[in-house]
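Extended Data, panel c. Modelled sequence:
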Amino acid sequence: MTNKDRWTFYCSDICSPNSFIDWGFYYIIASALQRRVWTGDVRKPLFSNIYVILTADPGVGKGLIVTEVAKVLRYHKLTKESQENNENIFAEEAKALKAIGEKPLLIPMGADATTYEALVKAMSRACRCSWFYKDGKKLPYIHSSICFCLEEISSLFRKHTEDLVRFLLVTYDCGDYRYDTVSRGLDVIKSSCLNLFGGTTPSFIKRIFGDELLTDGFASRTIFPFELGNRFQRLRPPSFNEAQIKEYEILLKHVKDLSELHGEVKFTSEAEKYLEHWWVHESLHKRVNNSPKLIPYYARKNITVQKLAMILHFSDSLEMSVNLDECKAALVVLEQVEKKMHNAINLSTKNPLAELSENILKYIHRNGPQSKKELLIEFWSDLQGGKEALDAILEYLITAQLVKIGEGKKYEAI
């Protein structure tokens, strides 16, 4: 059983969509690696950190997965042994944690709800020193790595959105950041690395984000798993049985093992040649989603696929080499999430039928296959163009491969 299988088994009674469960696992691996593992030129290294925002209407299992992911990442504490042998905690973070009576985490995490200012402050404090050996010498490696698990990202994006997005671009690329405040002076973040995992609704993205902010780079660096509904419904959150806990504990051990890794990851020559050929000859022509909203994302997919290939590799291995199969698997995983991703960042309101199309799609998904007559009756008051408007909407949904015509000429969600 792989560690992803263990995570899936542990989450088998959670009603959240499969894509939310899967990306929760990938995020755990990325967060455990922090800024200690990289690939590429040492002057411009590529790290495996990722931004993932689960996007769905309220009640579609975002918070359930965010909570479970946070539990895994908060489980391990920074012990005296780990500080002596691997990672030292800097005085500022130690002082802040002591003031609130908490032990330092092995993997530094931000608060469950945060703002731009609080995020910068937390990251400036989370400065760690890892130790590694080179040519028989013990050398320090200083980095500021932090991860966030936000059930709702609204607290983060409601204020200073443009400043926040600029900050997120820097920390995604793991650069240095300086923030001058009136109250506490200059916050300096050296060798940053941020992993961001949260949930939100499509309506919040429409309300807060603008096309410019998305085009400027945030959307191109973020995975937006989008879902219309849960896998199933249940009254209460599940309790986990003995078999699930056993597999969960194996996963926890692997997370701890990952936290001790340090160094450069090499892609095999086969993997390098395959990705080079894909990027140069295939990436522009073999897209599973041709929505204009994903143009910024596809422009940087060469970076995203390398990050995910590292994540898939370290899901089960501690070796510092990524192979061809892992690169192919990364492309498959990304194609699966890309199919629906434009729905999460579909910001345009120029077409008056756009919002109604979304509402009809959600209605079909929640209530099962519907005939054209049933939809006409249900949405008549919203259809300013009457039957012709509904025909246009259904034609669009079919063309976009969001619905299909099933038995009895009823429209059903794909």
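The chain has a mean pLDDT of 87. This feature is highlighted in the accompanying rendering.
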